[in-house]
Amino acid sequence: MSSSKSPTVLFYVQHLLGIGHVFRATRVARALSRAGAWVFLAWGGTRLPSIDLSGLEMIWLDPVKADGAMFSALVDPDGAPFGEERKTARRDALIGALDRLRPDIVITEAFPFGRRQMRFELEPFMLAAREAPWRPLTIASIRDIMQENRKESRVSESLDWFRRCYDLLLVHGDPSLIRIEETLQGASAILDKVRYSGLVTPDAPDLTVEPSHRADVVVSAGGGAVGHALTRAAIGANRHSARLPANWLLVVGPERDEAEYAALEQAAGAGMTVVRFVPDLARVLASAQVSVSRAGYNTVGDLLRARCRSVLVPFAGGRETEQMRRASLLRDRGLVAMLTDEELSPRSLGQAVDRAATLPPLAADLACDGAARSAEIVLEEYRRLRAGDGRDA
């Protein structure tokens, strides 16, 4: 490790389809930078102008994403297959950054418990980090609820790589809500290396600034087919709400084409406004009576910060279990109303909004300062390791 009091961090982040985890990872990276670390973000996906990268040194790898038709296949941004030659070049660039920077701390987002598609570069990269003569602290960064019912062989593979190459498992959640061993098979064998950061959420919205929209009910549907189902149910749902029949805002996502958007505006009718995008969603939610949304990690973090009464409609397509688990935990605590996709209709949604309106503002006693706490945990562990090596912290 270097003798500098400001440690160098090499943080690997790769998005393949969704980008929710990128918000979490970059918030942690910026918190490390604010805490005095010199953070290099090795970015493996397409560039995202909406992501705040302030305070970070960027390493732009040749961008790759998952083929939407076949998640295990990798393609470039133009959809061309990402061949072996380009994979080798990415691997060499990543290991070259390790050799050049000689980081004190190496963090991988999701891997080895996710990003299996990137094993071609992450396995040799982590072996190189583990065998580096300066011996960096190695950390895996994961969310609080993992995909359940994974194949036993893949679970064993992930655990083997963790034991082989990692010092710490940083879990971005509050154990009073759920512990990692409840959804990560085999985690009970590595609990001595687990640290909980709390939920990584945005800062609380500034309520002294007027929101871009004021609505009693905000339906943020999200994009793609996942969002379309919620959009369809929201149209006309206000007419089934006895408590809040008017002043609904439906946020349908920026990808809707003009014809579809116009049809939604016409179908919404009185009492509902349809928009593509809201730039200050957390502030809009903080001024609303009820939110209706899916139950992703970042969405729930926004709701907790906004203290907004909520109806959660967890996505549970295919083998997905994460959102259902999160929404059920919050519902069982009496904090939110919940609907499954099977229950979803305009009538049931309007009635669920009425149930949510009777709840107190969402104010769960959960740790929501996960970015700052992650930085504290990482730097504390780094100093402890250095002290163990007999070096000044």
Tags for this model:
single chain, 393 residues, alpha/beta, Rossmann fold, 2 domains, seven-stranded parallel β-sheet, six-stranded parallel β-sheet, 11 helices, 36% helix, globular
Give an account of the 3D structure.
The chain has helices at residues 20-34, 84-101, 119-131, 152-165, 224-234, 258-268, 281-286, 297-306, 322-332, 346-357, 370-388, and strands at 8-13, 38-43, 57-60, 65-67, 70-75, 105-109, 137-143, 168-172, 194-196, 217-220, 248-251, 272-275, 290-293, 309-312, 337-338. By secondary structure, the chain is of the alpha/beta class. The protein has 2 domains: 8-201 and 369-388, Glycogen Phosphorylase B (Rossmann fold); 217-357, Glycogen Phosphorylase B (Rossmann fold), CATH 3.40.50. Strands 3-2-1-6-7-8-9 form a 7-stranded parallel sheet, sandwiched between helices. Helix 1 (20-34) crosses helix 11 (370-388) and helix 2 (84-101) packs parallel to helix 3 (119-131). The chain is globular.
